[in-house]
Amino acid sequence: MAITNGYLTRAELKAALAIQPGDTVDDALLDEIATTASRLVDEYTGQFFYPITGGTATFTPETYYTCNTLPFTSVTTLKTDEDGDGIYEISWSATDYQALPSNAPLFTRPYTRIEVRPTGTRAFPINLTSSVQIIGNLGWTTHPSDVGQATTIQATTIYEARKSPFGIAGATETGIIRMSSRMHPEAQLLLDGYRLHNGIIG
Q: What is residue 161's predicted lDDT score, i.e. its pLDDT?
């Protein structure tokens, strides 16, 4: 299998595991582990770090004027469901809202929030679940380097745990690491700054 939306390559994982590039015996397994580790990163952070072009996502606004979102890089259309029937009947003009933080592109980061412009003519419908819909380019254009490092740590942990008794993947100053703990502590440290706490995923 190939790595799907992964945050490290097979070559990077081989290098981390000191596997020679010409050793192809475990290539399929390495691809599976890299994909699994990437999805664990998504689950831990509550977001994903790969791009989805022309994706559709729905969100529940916090107030009439603010709506936290999954990361996105551009919006094609924004619509709202005003009566909770699941039909997004109101299309917003680009002059009605703004994507924030406004300086995100300068730091090669996505937007994570939509706010109503002071000069806009609309407001978000509150007290309705998933009342805001955006269609556009979702996720990150490319994953940050520390996300890649965390994924590599997690992938090597999974690989080594296969050879360890009782699923023990290693030890740190705080004790033994077992696969039941899911994320490696060092990977968590790298990822904590990326965690979303608004329940958008999961």
A: 86
pLDDT in tens, 14-55: 999 999 989 998 999 999 999 999 999 999 999 999 999 999
What is the C-alpha to C-alpha distance for residues 151 and 158, in angstroms, rounded to an integer? 10
φ and ψ at residue 146, rounded to 5 degrees: -70, -25
| 178-196 per-position pLDDT tens digit | 554 578 999 999 999 999 8
- Expressed in angstroms, the distance from the first to the final Cα of the chain is 27
Domain boundary assignment for the chain: 10-48+143-194, 52-138
In our burial notation (b when 16+ CB lie closer than 10 A, e otherwise), range 35-62 reads bebbbbbbebbbbbbbbbeeeebbbbbe
99 alpha carbon, distance to own chain's centre: 18
The helix or strand, by DSSP H or E, that contains position 30, with its residue range, turns out to be: helix 27-45
In terms of Cβ atoms closer than 10 Å to its own Cβ (0-12, 13-18, 19+), residue 30 is buried
- 166 DSSP assignment: G
Task: Answer yes or no: are the C-beta atoms of 47 and 57 closer than 8 Å.
Answer: no
Q: What is the pLDDT of residue 117?
A: 96
Residues 131 and 55: beta-carbon distance below 8 Å = no
